[in-house]
Amino acid sequence: MLLLFFAVITAFYGVALGQVGLLSADEPRYASIGREMARSGDWITPRLWGDPWFEKPPLLYWLVAAGQRAGLGDDLSPRLPVTLLSLAYLLLQFLVLRRLEGERIAWIALLLLATTAGWAAESQIGVTDLPLAATFNASLLLGLLWLETGSKRAALAAGACFGLSLLAKGLVAGVLILPFFVFAWKRWKELLAPAAAALLVAAPWYGAMFVVHGRPFWDEFFVKHHFSRFADGALLHTQPFWFYVPVLVASLFPWPTVLTLIGPACWSERRRRLLASVFCFGFVFFSASANKLPGYILPLLPSLCIVLAAGIETAGRALRQLALAALLLGLCPIIATVLPDALLHGLRRANLGEVHWEYFAMALPFVLGVWWFERTNNRVAAVAVVALGSAAGLLFVKLSAAPVLDHIVSARGLWRRVEPRADQTCVESLHRNWLYGLNYYSVQPLPGCAGSSRAVSITQKPGAMPSLSPRSMPMTK
């Protein structure tokens, strides 16, 4: 059964992984740094088109560089390693939970997390949120295993995974882990060995960066992208305190209905109270931060899904919540229509289109499946029906939206138009998302038009698509 599940989820995550070019500004920028690492052989200093780039630590760049060295190409090397890391974490979560919580809760937590929109989407793009979520939660679960069983191997493995989480996105993992120490402080002497393992993994890169770059690395990496990112809105990602409430609901799609099943069983055991504490503390921490992006709360989803799994498994009745989750799958055609516009202009300005009852009629077989298995007291199978529908619905969204995303959101299509005359093209004006993507696919960034004699310019007006046009060159005597 476990092999069948991972075969299905691997196909779900892996289908058409490279059908859409790299998106936004972050994915092509991180991919460019990883590609440069692979080509230069310098696996210490991240560089963006030759210049040191101190914004993030190297774990994602190493994954991209490994993909490049393995011959995955420019579209798969940033994404496939992240997908494989996601699958590795899901397997670890199941194996650890099966030992700590039993088979049923382990299965429900696995089905929930693997088919939430947030985890599934982040498992298919090359940004830092999934590497942090996977390594941090691996450390947390292995730490729980140590607390419950006293296993020294689990403690050392937890420390090593925590070291990787520090290499995934910096000090944020050190903040999110604080509730764990509240529960484990009486055994602080036993934490010295995993702490040493974490330092052994993370310290060499940080030490090398300080030796090579000194104060500029400190100022950019720690001061600007850690302390300032939390305290002020200079990075232009400011959002209200309640921002993550709707983000969490959307990330849990189609499962937010099961939030109503949270009850005493979710905190009846110490390990569940710890996981609930990690989620609540992290949610407040990210909400208090001045800068907010939707992917920031991804590391909190595994803990929440495990707590929810306990609530679902012990609930007397869950028919209403699971049936509503299955019915929400009728929103998938709407999501497929809205997604390109939302990524291009923002969700607030996206056209939501019309809602047709036929969409929800397509979800009825899954609702009936939930009813049947709940009627026969097979809760895990009822959850699996919704999970199967979620995988099918999210796959439909991906395949339906992919051609549009590749055309109007990714810069890959723009590069295909530019490539035949790249040596005659310059950039007049281009949104940063498109500029980073274009530079990634061109490998050598195209020059700006100011002072250039190139005959073709790329221009983009606010809210419009980029266009190529001949330049009117000044007359020379």
Would you give an account of this structure?
With 477 residues, the chain is mainly alpha-helical. Among the domains are: 235 residues, no CATH class; 59 residues, no CATH class. It is built from 23 helices and five strands. The strands form two sheets. A three-stranded mixed sheet has the order 3-4-5, with no helix packed on it. The chain has a two-stranded antiparallel ribbon with strand order 1-2. The radius of gyration is 24 Å and the shape is globular.
Briefly say what this structure is.
The protein has 477 residues and is mainly alpha-helical. It is built from 23 helices and five strands. 63% of the residues lie in helices and 3% in strands.
Give the secondary structure arrangement, pairings included.
Elements: H1 2-14, H2 26-40, E1 47-48, E2 51-52, H3 59-69, H4 73-76, H5 80-100, H6 103-114, H7 117-122, H8 129-149, H9 152-169, H10 172-176, H11 178-184, H12 192-213, H13 215-231, H14 244-251, H15 270-288, H16 301-314, H17 319-327, H18 332-345, H19 357-361, H20 364-375, H21 379-408, H22 412-418, E3 425-427, H23 432-442, E4 456-459, E5 467-470
Parallel strand pairs: 3-4
Antiparallel strand pairs: 1-2, 4-5
Helix pairs in contact: 1-5, 2-3, 2-23, 5-6, 5-8, 6-16, 6-21, 8-9, 9-12, 11-15, 15-16, 17-20, 17-21, 18-21, 20-21
Main features:
477 residues; mainly alpha; two-stranded antiparallel ribbon
Output the strand order for the largest sheet. 3-4-5
Largest sheet data: 3 strands, mixed
Rounded to the nearest angstrom, the distance between the terminal CA atoms is: 78 Å
Q: Describe the global form.
A: globular
| Number of continuous helical runs | 23
Average pLDDT, rounded to a whole number, is 91
Helix content: 55-70%
Please tell me how large the radius of gyration is: 24 Å
List SSEs in N-to-C order.
Answer: HHEEHHHHHHHHHHHHHHHHHHHHEHEE
Total number of beta strands: 5
Strand content: under 5%
Structural class from helices and strands?
A: mainly alpha
Q: Which stretches of 5+ consecutive residues score pLDDT under 50?
A: none
